Amino acid sequence: MPERLRLVDLVNARLDEFLTERGNHLATIADELDVFLDASRDLLSGGKRFRALFAYWGWHSVAGTVRSDDLLAELDDHPELDAVIDLAAALEIFHAAALVHDDIMDNSDTRRGMPSVHRRFEAEHARREWVGSSSGYGSASALLHGDLLLGWSDELLAQGLSRVADRAAARRARSEFHLMRTEVTVGQYLDILEEVAWREAPEEDLLPRAHRVVTYKSAKYSIEAPLALGGLMAGGSEEQVAALRAFGLPLGVAFQLRDDLLGVFGDPSVTGKPAGDDLREGKRTVLIALARAALPGGATRLIDELLGDPDLTEAQIRTLQATIQESGAVETVEQIISRSVAQAIAAIEDAPLSRSARSELIGLSDLVTRRAH
């Protein structure tokens, strides 16, 4: 745990340094651009740094087998530690960009207990009584902010890869980042497509389609890709990177399934999001697909009629929550989470990865799937 906290401190320091540099550049263009820096700092001040942690331990799982089997404290003098910290920070900025865009698409009011970025810009427009639509200005400004963060994540990644002595390893990591960026973007599209086009799909296809969204929108870029990026940056062999992927994908699925449960049943004071937020947004998750398959026709019609209504009352939210509970879908999702975690752990038990990294990854598997927010 101390190593984990110290790693988070290193990543936070790199983020602060990077944002200060970019903020100084924005200040040379126009004073009005400080809104982008302020929004970036606020958004990046929160979060659990899971992607950063998995990137580091993916790197360590390979680097630790070459130098030693020691923890972070013993690797402070590693010549490429700065490179992996850059990678970890780049992933956090990429994640922030995805959150900004996600909140625009989902019309979300809050993120991490604060107004979402488009609501932040919208409120500024209204407060200053500017010309035109406050909501239009908010969405357009947030879209640009998300794009700016995407560009910054690539800049920071390039900085990290420039520090890697093994240029072939750097190229492999760059290709992995490109793949991750493509997959999460199309995964996000599949998510919004499922919200509007699900009626066209045969009933038996709804669950695999929901699982497809889990895989590409979240599981790969949340855990599998950060692990693979770290391992590739360290020059990992095909066997080592394959083991990291075999661990990361099922764990990423479990991670997102936990998130889906929190999106329906999470405590707003803990999650920072309104209760039942995924219900108002109409998320066609694995949880919903399982509930629909298990319920009688009347209850299924109730879900279909209410799901996706942005004006759901608290009473309607409670009704939907009770209906989903009664279907047995929550217990089924919990079972899938448990099986996925077990599958992930089994994938690295005898893998050629550093002993301390394997131990830390097992600890992280528990952390990311048992969280309350």
From TrEMBL:
Keywords: Magnesium, Metal-binding, Transferase. The keyword Transferase applies. SUPFAM superfamilies: Terpenoid synthases (SSF48576). Its cofactor is Mg(2+). CDD domains: Trans_IPPS_HT. GO terms for molecular function: metal ion binding; prenyltransferase activity. Belongs to the FPP/GGPP synthase family. This is Polyprenyl synthetase family protein.
